[in-house]
Structure formats: structure tokens, C-alpha cells
Amino acid sequence: MWDWLFGIWSALMTTMAIVGHSPQEHVESPPHYPSPLGGCVGGDDKWADSYERAREFVSQMTLLEKVNLTSGIGWKQGKCVGNTGDVPRLDFAGICLQDGPLGVRFSDLVTGFPAGITAGATFNKDLIYQRGAAIAQEFRGKGVDVVLGPSTGPMGAKALGGRNWEGFGSDPYLQGIAGALTVEGIQEQGVMANAKHFIANEQEHFRQLVEWRDDYGYRDLKGQVSSNLDDRALHEIYAWPFADMIHSGVSSLMCSYNKVNNSLACQNSYLMNKIAKEELGFEGFIVSDWFGQQSGVASVLAGLDMGMPGNDRENPGFMSANLTAMVMNGTVPEWRLNDMAMRIMAAYYYVGLDETRKQVGGPNFNSWSKDTLGSVPEGSPIEVVNDHVDVQTKFSRDTAYKVSLEAIALLKNINNTLPFSAEHQIQRISVLGLGAAASPLGPNCPDSQACSEGVMASGWGSGTAEFPFLKIPVEEISRKALEQGKSVNWNFETTITAEYDETVTHSDVNIVFALANAGEGSRIVHGNYGDRNNASLWHNADSLIKHAATRNSNNIVVINSPGPVNVEQWIEHPNVTAVLFTPPGGQYTGQTIADVLFGDHNPSGRLPFTIARDDDDFVPIVRNVPKDGLPQDNFDESIYIDYRFFDQFNKTPRFEFGYGLSYSQWRFSNLEIINLNELLEPQEPYPYPDGYSTDQPTKALPAAGGPGGNPALFQEIYQIKAQLTNLGPYQGSYVAQLYIGYPQFSEYPTPPKQLRGFEKTYLLPEHSDIVTFNLRWKDFAGGVPIGGVLVSKDGKILGKGHNQRIQKDSATLHGEIDTLENAGRLPGSAYKGATMYTTLSPCDMCTGACVMYGVGRVVMGENRTFVGGEAYLKQRGIEVVNLNNEECYQLMQEFIKQKPSEWNEDIGVE
After folding, report:
1. Domain count along the chain
2. What is the pLDDT of residue 16?
3. Which of 748, 775, 802 represents a domain boundary (last residue)?
């Protein structure tokens, strides 16, 4: 189901060659209606019970009350960043939705947690879960209903993307596991999680029309950027983590600002109706990103369930009174409004919010002011709007510290420069670079951390929270140095002055802090419009490092960045003896860096992205507006993002994904692979009763059988074990990573290797333990590589599909049938001049379908593997073309060799 089946590409390539255009010229997202009803997926008794309760509640609601539940009341019209309307008759207060993925935004007395990318860099599943739980406990204590996180979109396909740091890393498996664990941690605290941004939201440039046209002066811009991607990239990369989170029961999704294949994500029926609600079996509700809804009827019919935040003076709302009118005049059927309300209330009951509210009550803070007294909304009577509830706990503080600590990656360590110790022949330490210092603006920059004049503990934008305090590197290093009887000097200048030269020359070791930063496109920092302008270090750090290296033989660089940076100017210099990388570490940033430098902790972080040698190896940000005013972001890299690209095209990175050194030496041994679901053949045929058949008696539901997709995808089928030994000399943790390479099908390859497991293990020196990886069907997902494409007379793709009998447990979904199904209901004239491109000669069933709909021509890749109903097609006046393509033939032969049982089950003959 998840590996886009290879035959479709054979058909697509043939199609493009015949009709004579590239895929980008006619990129469009196909429609998919109607919106699937919630509560019909099955496979999760908890969802079923929640829908029963939701049905009882919604059945009592009037039309206007349902509209209230699905509509934001307006920007700054309630205490939270997002608020739905109340239903006072049923004693139901509106739902409070609040940023963000690393802590409670716009509130005091909360923890400033490390970012998502930092949690990903720990590669520690238990710690990722604990972070989600700790964050949710603070949201719950503030009276919030919906945590607007985690973020697994952007995926991080673009190294310079502004909001990559909110997610967990540039790999779908890592994002999926981390996202699912975070969802579980959040929702087990009795509040709802919100998985965002759905989907392919990979850059900040041109994400919103008004923001970039009116605020930033791009007057020629006429629409949001369109992320144009193929279906294989959609399934294998961008939808993968959302499937994992849906499988874990995430209660809500947030659709993104951008277009996907030239259809706005928040009114894209293919993404919301087909992918999320049907194929992935999503049972919760979909909410728009703030002001991301750009239509009324179109968005609602496409699957949007809640519009946020509602009206303000500059942005019209499309729900509220407008939604009432849509239902009253019949343009939106009432069953659709009922489903919207049902999905919201089912999610509400699913996480136990009814019980949480009894214990906590509503929001006890005001997002728009820290004053105790005020009026919300503005102009209403003055009352207490901020209770200043302190939600910080030992658990939240300990978790924030551990995540920051375990994320730090050691990239270079010549001659055991690190760690420092009392026995080290080092007495004079110089700390350099603006990244080691406190910002003159204090721990919290105005306007959502949008500054970079000191230590970088967070990116900027709506994904931030306010720090109650911030540990500063130079202060923490000084404290640790004092404990060991060492002296510390510092210089935070950003140019090479005589004073800087004096400082770096007369020290036993220099610690040079270098930073970069990024954030949301709503704010500009040092000329960076959210997305970084380049991969360079900020504040002249390269020059500072190189000068220190020419004046001193012992220099340690600490990189503090939200993503990959270019280190080529100095990384191989022999006097750069050690390098640490730390992503945004939250309120304990300085303390955890000092603890690693001085050996209180053995570094165990790993890079959750690749650092390149050449910036040209990074996928570029689309920064220019074309003549038609509609930016097109063609995902030409398809499935080859980050390390997949470097591996596929034999490019050597500076530091690969998953890289990180240790103060200890480690060894693997005794690898073992166990088949957990080995087929047990019966000793003799079972005497079934007369009339019984072993064939599947019923057709699978279109929603694929369960949350996250077919439940079988999540069944564990292999277990891999290995012995890990810490050879010493330090205690510490090691991240074992499992990569899998799939069989290659000539012209239709997969990346040489893909992450399919990670486990972090703590060991004392000279101790061993067994590391275990459990692999799911999803991790090996495939199927029968036969596909089809239906192309109109003028070259427009009407539908495309692939054989999904195995994925959907279907008796009929051959490639041609799936293609016709995905083309939707078309007028008869549309089929007459159309061409069906298919990998193989069509079987009798598919032949009959082509005849029934009057398809004008059938073009097959080859018929040596299988001969179907070609004669009948010709008899009925349908033109038949056999390309006799050798690549297609070899593809099928390799597949049959690899998976003979699947071939024989489908259309082969034993």
C-alpha cells in the first residue's frame, strides 16, 4: 500500500512519451467525493464507543448549534488562539485550540521545551513519548482542549525550510514513530493532539497570498505556492507519518496553507476525503490552518470539518453564518454538517475531554495579554482573564532537560579533546561567539522569539513558547569550569578585532559558538523570511572559527542550529579538534551543552538530517514569482529526499543522517533474524463442511479497514536482534539504527537503504545488552506491480491506479479497475476518445470494464508475461497497441521471481 507500485510508472512514462508533455505542465489534484462518514472505519472499539456518545450528543443539537461547534468565533474573540462557539443549551463550552508543538504559547509559568527536531535527534522513543506527555500536562493545566501539535509537516525535504525544526527530522519513518509516540503521550493526558501540517508544506515562501503579496511586497503573486508531487512520494514520504499518527488515534489533523498539485490543501478533496478519511481511515476532524480556508462550499465538501479562527477585520470567515446559509440553501447537505459535528465530538470523547474539563475547567489564561484583569473580547466587561496558574512540574522540567541533553551530537573529536576533566591539561578556557551569550532582549524575544542576538534555544513563530528562564552557555561553562579549578574568558564580538585575537591566542582551548536560525514566514529575522537564505552560519561565525584556528591549536566548535549548515570552510582544519551540534534545546540549552563538554554526560544525539559538503545538493526553496503569478514547487526529487538522495546518486555528505560519535567505543555482534509470522502448513487438508469456501466472503471497506490503513500493515512480521557492547571507557547510550534495502526493479528503483528501526540503549562500560527491532508489514509494503493510466484524447490524465488486491484485500482491484475507480464518474463521451495505458495485457475482467465504458484504445506495456482479452477488445472495435517493452517485461519477471505466491494468487497460473 505504501510503496507506490512500480508498474504505474511504466505506464506514466509511456503516457508522457506519447502525448508529449512533462508531468509538471498539467499537474492537478483529482477530485474525490463524497466525504466519508466518520464512525464507519472499524478496527478500534474506542472510536466506536466515542461515536456512540457523539451520536447521542449531536442528535440533540440544532442546526445553528452544529454550526457553532464547527466554526471559529474570530481572531482574538476568545482566550485561546482558536475558539469554537459555545452550545449553552447543552452546557457545552466552546473548544479551545492553542499553539504549539513545544509548549503553551502566549502564557506564563510554563516550560519552554526543546523543539521537535531536538526530540527527533535523541532517537529515544521513551523520551519522545515523555515529552509529549509533559507538554500535554501543561496544556491540560491551562485548560486547553487541543494541543496544536505535533508537527510532521514539513518533512524537512528542504534543508533551509523555515519550520523544519518543529518536526522530528528528514525521514518519514523517524517522523512517523516520533509523531505517533507524541500523539499517544498527549492524548493519554486527556487532551486532543493535532497532527499538522497536512501536507507537503515544505517552505514558508508564498505559503499565504496576503502575507507575501501585501505584507512582503510580492505584487505579482496571485496564489499560494503549489507543492507538485507524485503519488509515490505522497505515500512513501509525506503521508507516511500521518498514517502512523492516525493509527495511534490522533484526534485531529490540520490542513496546510499551500496548494498540493494546484489545489489548496484545505479544499483538496483527494487529500482530505480520499487519502486521510478513506485510505487512512481517519476518524477525527480536520481543521484549517489559521485563515487557511479560502472557500466555503468547496472546502466543506472536500472534507474540512472546522474553520479557524473565524472572522477578523481583514480576513473573511467561511463558516459560521455562511455555513448556515450553505446548509439552508442546499449547497451543503445537512448530513455533511452532521458528520462534521460528529467527528469533533467523537474526538472530544475519544480522549476523555469531558472528564478533563470536570477536573480543570476552561482556559485560565489570556493569549492576548499577561494582565490579570482585562476584557476578552475587547470591549466586553473587565474581569479576571489570567489566573497565572503555574503548570511547571518536576516531570516537565526533568523531561525538558533530558531531551535537550540527549539530542546533542558529537561530530568530531580528535585525540579525545572532549570531555574536559579535572585531569585535563587545560586551565584557560575562552568562550567565543554570540551564540554563547545572553540576548540583550532577555530570554524571550518580542513577537514569538523572532530574534537572534544570543543563544538560540528555539526557532521563531507560532510554534514557540515563552521561557520561564534560559540557561546561558557561557554562564554554565563558567560554573562547571570553576568546579574543576579552571578559568574562563569570553568575547562575543562578531568581527575579528584586536581584543578577539588576544582572547583566542592566549587560551588553552577556545569554544566557539556558531548559530543559525529559522522560523515561520510571518516574521523576518536578519533578512530571512522564515526560510533561511542559505546554509551559512550567522554572525560571521565562519571567519571567527577560521581565525581562532590560525591562532590556537585547540578549538572546539559548538553549532546551534535548527537544521543543516555548511561547515566546509573549517571542518577539516587540524586545529578544529572537536565539534558539537545541538538543535534548539529549550530552556536548558546552556546547561546541557556544558554537561556534555565537561563529561557529565556522554553525547548520544544523532543528526536527524544530512549535512552536505555542497549546498547545491540541498533541494532549493522556490523564491521567485513566475509570470503567471502562481509559484510551482515541483518535487522532482520524488522519494529521494535527504540521505535517500545522497545514497541514490552516490554523493558523499559531510555528515550523514543518523551520524553521531560517543566518548565510548561500541561493538555489535550476534545478529539474528526471526520470522514472527512464519506460515505453518497443515499436515493434511482440513475437512471443511460442505458449502464452506476459504475465499474472502466479503469485500473490504473503501477506508482500508482501520485507522492508519489496513490493520495488517501494522502487524509485526520480523524481529531482528543483535548484541550491543559498550567497550568503554565511559557509561552512556548508543542509538542502534536499522536500515533496509529492497530488491531493485531495474528502471523503477527504491532508495539503496531506508530507516526502518531505531533503539537507544544505555550501558555501563564493558556491559552488553540485546537490541531488538520489530518490523511491520508496512515497513516492507508492496504488492503486485501492475498499474494503469486513463488519458483523455487531449492528453489529460483522467485517472491512475494500481493493483490493490493485496493492500485492500479486494477481489476486483486490478490496476485498470482501480484506474477507472479513481477517474470517478465521467460522462460517456469522456471514455470514447480515451486511452487506457496498462502494464500488462488486461485480464477478462478488466477487458470487460474497458468494453463496458467504451474506452477507445488500450496500450499495454507487454503481453509475454500474460495474454488477456486482447482478441475480444479488437472484436469490439477497440484499438490495441502492444509496446512489447523489455523494461516492463523484466519488471514482471523480477517480481514473479521475488513473490511467486502473490503473482499466482492474482492472475498467474501455478
Report:
1. 3
2. 30
3. 775
